[in-house]
Every structure is written in structure tokens, then in C-alpha cells.
Specification:
2 copies of one chain form a homodimer. The first copy, chain A, is an alpha/beta fold. Chain A has helices spanning about 5-10, 15-25, 30-45, 50-55, 70-85, 100-115, 125-130, 160-170, 185-200, 215-230, 240-255, 285-305; strands at about 60-65, 90-95, 120, 140-145, 155, 180-185, 210, 235-240, 265, 280-285, 310-315, 315-320. Chain A contains 12 helices and 12 strands. In chain A, strand 3, helix 7 (about 125-130) and strand 4 (about 140-145) form a beta-alpha-beta unit. The longest helix of chain A has 17 residues, at about 285-305. The N and C termini of chain A lie far apart (about 75 Å). Chains A and B meet through helix 4, helix 5, strand 2, helix 6 and helix 11 of A and helix 4, helix 5, strand 2, helix 6 and helix 11 of B. Chain B binds a DNA duplex through helix 2 and helix 4.
DNA sequence: TTGAAAGCGCTAACAT
DNA sequence: ATGTTAGCGCTTTCAA
């Protein structure tokens, strides 16, 4: 098959151990080192990672299991994880679980078979609820969505706070009938809803929520149905980018204006949110930080497995744009 | 460390060979088979893929090296590749080369070290131009962008045809000063430009082109500069989704209307293209097909390495939307 | 059908 | 500093 360490050793006239030392910067005399390097270059030798991993019991690999690669939030996070991983000399296996608990289980099994050093994971709420970290030989860092409290490391947005921020903003702009559209499959939707409810309650305003599957189509269907009812909201809080797009579709189709007929505020500063009308008001997540921090947590966990589990909570930033420009009158308190 | 085949064999009271046969559906008596399966379940045994790959010399893995994971075109293609790969019992290692020839070289080296069965690759034009497939032990299928003609399999869009389609459409809608904005790093931009030039020449119309780096920022900078010139086009053909977004930004900032001040036609039916004004006219690529066909080509190449190299050319579909609604008068021929 | 044993390519003791 | 050798966990002859 391909050229192996033995071939290099023979050409250089040294033992395989010496070649191995050269490759891993062990102590080798300058003379032998150059001879080996020449042999490597001449033969085009490339080490076999399967053999190396098997022997050294070091995978130098982390798994990243995301819910949906089509969601720009996760592609942004995965780039950050990749960058941080390569800086630390690690490789990343990117897996796309498609919001499907079966696929999540399949990939976790695969990670075990690959003997990865650790996994960064954004689980569905089904998997999050029953996740047993002790069943896996690698540490897991949850991102975006939390698992059972205290059982794994996690880095998440302050979701209740973000939900609250949007509602407070809408109230300040004069909106009073504020609906909420949330994803039904991740814990994120539930946490954002909690903040939404709390803020409304604090102002003595009623809430009105819908839960939908995490897809643009499901969201637009839900909003269409909502619009068919007699008394729809004058503003909508939407819990992620995919759903927000669905809401925009439904409103546009119905010939309604944003924010004239309905104000819209959501999550994720995706490219297109700046293009709808004069822009959509959103919570911008620190996507790159989320990825980098997750990787750092994983590395420090690998260095020190007995550390207490940590949860890092990051804050989103409110980007005020035209989709919530207000009802004319300023808000009473 | 973790439980291994020997542990399973001992618990089941059989040899490791028998366990291995059970795992790979070799011929084993029903009685032993159940005993082994029970032992596997009881111990939670998971095979070590590094060991398996080392011994069997079969990686069951393909590499997918894309230019930019943030580009929805590539995330869509990668999902298709993944689906097709899993159907064929293969895994996918997704690598993001970031339009950087150095990273491409690094990943190709990594693929060699992983001893992958094959690679699906969308190279920069730098790498495409000097690509030597015989230097790699695995077959390569190029996607989206071609390498040296006849040296590798490839699946690409009919780019000249697509460029032509857009220009013909604009001419039919009454536009005469049709500019072109193309990416300077992939062969795709050049091929689309060729079609653009050919169509204009055929109608005796002048061309006017700009080449830019493959980023939204570069595109908006270029368009801004263009608008500062005295005689800018009344319609623009833009060679991909990232650049198209940049063009939209520049026009919007300048307070210009689409298509009133400038018509816009581009590539890639990204979600947001439907949201700009009443929609952007674009060539929609058969993204899923591209991925599936690439995987199929790779599999058939693995089965039959001596096959002649093939190039599959797929057609894009013109989605006519409001951004090219016309200059009032119908077009003369 | 089953088991014993060799060996995939590499690293890491251990010896020199 | 360098070489010899055992063995990582598995698959695959080869015998029985």
C-alpha cells in the first residue's frame, strides 16, 4: 500500500524508532535528523493516523455535534470551534444531527468508536433531558442548550435575559399585545419564553404564545393561522433565526407591513435580517465567543477531569432596528 | 481503558475471532451469536475504529473539502454528500479550507494521513491549476470548480450557460448597459464571465467587468467604487451569493432602488434573495444533486479505478423575480 | 463453525 | 543518542 515508517528508516539507514523520534521532535542528532527528513521528503511519507492513535491512545480529536448546519448560528460556532481546536493541535469531526434524537444517539456512539478526546454538543431537549454523561468515556461540553444541571460543562446565552430584553424594548416602544413564537424542540425556546413571560408579567401585560417545530415552514404556518384569528398581537417575539424567517414569509404573503401591522423582534443577526424592510430588531449572540469558550472549557476539562462542572453564561446584544420602530406614543412606565 | 473485544470474548466464553465475526455478520451459529450479542450489550462494547481501520486497511471514510462553510451553497451540498455517504455506509470528514490554498494543502495532507477512501473537493483556482491527482493515493472528485481537464472526475454547473441565461434575460427585459461582478479566486467566476461576455458579444453590446475577492465586503466596496464613476451600468450580473449580498448592501446604502436605479441578477437561491425588495432574480443551482452525484461518482470510481475520468455538467434554473423587472419597453432582438 | 496466531503501522519501554 | 522489541485492538488467514 503506501509508504510506511519502515521504508523511511531503511532509506535513511536508521531504526524506525529514530524516524518516530524525528517526527515527534524527540532527541535525535542533527545529522540523523536531516537524513530522516530527506528520506521523508523523497518518499513523500505521511504517518498513518489510525496506527498512531491506536498505539498512543491519543486521538487529538474532538467531536462537534450540532443541531443543524443550515442554521448560520451553528456554522459560525463551528468555525470558532475549529479555529480554537487547530490552535490547540486538535482536529474536529463535525456532525450534523438535524434536530433528530436518533441521529444524536448515533453520533454519540460514533464519537465513542472514534475514541475522541471530548465532544461539544447542542442537544435536542429530548436528549438533553435524559443525557447521562457517565455513560461516555469522554467529557461533553453543551453549547446553546443545557443538559441536566450540574452534570456537564455548558456555555449558553442568558436566554431569559435576552427574552426579557426584547419584551422590555417592545413595551418601551409602545407595544402592548406582544405574542411569542418559540421552538418546541430545544431548551433554548423554553428559556427565552420564561424571560418573555416574566417581563410581561412584571408589566401586568398578558402573554400569548405558540410553540412550533424548528423549521421556517412550521413557523410561517403557525403565523398564518394566528393571523386568521380575530385578535392577533401587534408585536411578535420569535425565538430563533429560522422561525423569524418563517414569520417574515407569513406576514409578507399576507400583505402586512412590518412594523405597521405587526412589529417583529427575534434572535440571531443573520445576514438577511438587515435586508427585511429597514432591518429586523434582533438579539445578536456572541457566536464566535460561544465556540471558543466551549473549546477552552473542553481543553481545561481534559487537563483536569476532577474540576467541578462549570456553566458559562454569555449575554446577547440588542440590535434595535426598524421592525420595532414603535406605536408613535412613547411608553408609560 | 475501555472495554475491548477480548473482554467480550471472555464474558461470552468464545474467541475474539468469533466476536469479530458476529460484529461483521460472518458465519456464526445462532447460539454463539446471541451469547456474544448479550455480552456486547452488557459491557456496552464499542469497536475501536482506529484499530479496525488499521487492520482492515479500509477507512470507510471520505473527505469533503469545501471552500467556505458560511456559504449556504456549500452547506447544502455537504448535507447531500453526507446523506449519500451514510446510505453507502461511509463517513464524511468535513473540512473548511476558507478559500485558502495553504489550508487546502494542509487538508489534502490530512486526508492522506487519515487514509480516506476518496475526497470531494472544491478548490481555489490556484490549487485547481496546479493540482496533481497522481500525488494522492485516493481518487478526487471536484465539485463546483474544475481542476485540470481530464485529470479528475468533476461535477459542475454549466456556468457559461448560466451566465448567458442571465444576460439574455436582462437583454430581453430591456437592459443594455450590463455590468458583471465576478469572484477572482475560483474558476467558477471565470466560467460565468465567459458566458456573460459571449451573450453580450452576440447582441453587439459592450461588457464591463470587475473581479473581487470572494467576500461580501469586497463586493460592496467594488460596487461603491463603481457607483462613484460617471457611467455605471443599469444592470449587474453577480457571480455568487456572497457577492450578490455585497452588491445589495452597496446599493441600499447609496439609497438606490432595485431595479429602478440598477437591476440585479445573480447566483444561488439563498433564503434572503427572496426578501430583498420583491425578490432577486437568480440562477438556482441543483445543490442537492451536485452533492449526491459527486458521491456517486466517487463510489463508482472506488469500485472501478480504471474508468475514464468523467465530468457531469448540471444546469441551473433561472428564477425571474422583481430585481430585473425591466425598463418598461420590451426588448428588440 | 470455531479458535490460534500473525500482523496492520506506529510509539514507547527498555537496553545499549 | 540510537536500536530492539513489545503491543495498541482489531481482522483475517490458516488449521482443526
Amino acid at each position: 500500500m503506501s509508504v510506511k515508517i519502515k521504508d523511511v528508516a531503511e532509506l535513511a539507514g536508521v531504526s524506525v524508532a529514530t524516524v518516530s523520534r524525528v517526527l515527534s521532535n524527540g532527541s535525535v542528532s542533527a545529522a540523523l535528523k536531516t537524513r530522516v527528513e530527506e528520506a521523508v521528503a523523497q518518499l513523500g511519507y505521511r504517518p498513518n493516523l489510525s496506527a498512531r492513535r491506536l498505539r498512543s491512545q491519543l486521538s487529538q480529536t474532538v467531536g462537534l455535534i450540532v443541531s443543524d448546519v443550515r442554521n448560520p448560528f451553528f456554522t459560525a460556532v463551528s468555525r470558532a470551534v475549529e479555529d480554537a481546536a487547530y490552535r490547540a493541535g486538535m482536529r474536529v469531526i463535525l456532525c450534523n444531527a438535524d434536530e433528530d434524537p436518533d441521529k444524536e444517539a448515533m453520533y454519540l456512539r460514533l464519537m465513542q468508536e472514534e475514541r475522541v478526546s471530548g465532544v461539544i454538543f447542542s442537544p435536542t431537549s429530548v436528549t438533553a433531558g435524559r443525557f447521562r454523561p457517565e455513560r461516555f468515556e469522554f467529557p461533553v461540553v453543551m453549547i446553546d442548550r443545557e443538559g441536566p444541571p450540574g452534570l456537564t460543562d455548558a456555555v449558553v446565552l442568558d436566554n431569559p435575559q435576552a427574552g426579557r430584553l426584547l419584551v422590555e424594548h417592545l413595551i418601551a416602544r409602545g407595544y402592548r399585545k406582544i405574542g411569542g413564537l418559540f421552538g418546541n424542540v430545544s431548551t433554548t425556546g423554553a428559556a427565552r419564553r420564561a424571560g418573555y413571560e416574566a417581563a410581561l408579567a412584571q408589566h401586568g401585560l398578558p402573554s400569548s404564545v405558540r410553540f412550533v417545530a424548528p423549521s421556517t415552514e412550521a413557523a410561517s404556518t403557525a403565523v398564518r393561522a394566528w393571523l386568521a384569528e380575530p385578535d392577533w398581537p401587534d408585536a411578535l417575539v420569535v425565538s430563533n433565526g429560522l422561525l423569524l424567517l418563517g414569520a417574515v414569509h407569513a406576514l409578507t404573503e399576507a400583505g402586512l407591513s412590518i412594523p405597521g401591522d405587526m412589529a417583529l423582534a427575534g434572535f440571531d443577526n443573520d445576514v438577511w435580517t438587515g435586508l427585511v424592510g429597514h432591518g429586523l430588531t434582533v438579539i445578536e449572540q456572541p457566536v464566535y465567543d460561544i465556540g471558543v469558550v466551549a473549546m477552552e472549557m473542553l481543553l481545561s476539562r481534559l487537563e483536569n477531569p476532577s474540576l467541578a462542572k462549570r456553566k458559562v453564561v454569555l449575554n446577547g446584544a440588542l440590535l434595535e432596528r426598524a421592525s420595532t420602530s414603535g406605536r408613535g406614543a412613547a411608553a408609560p412606565s
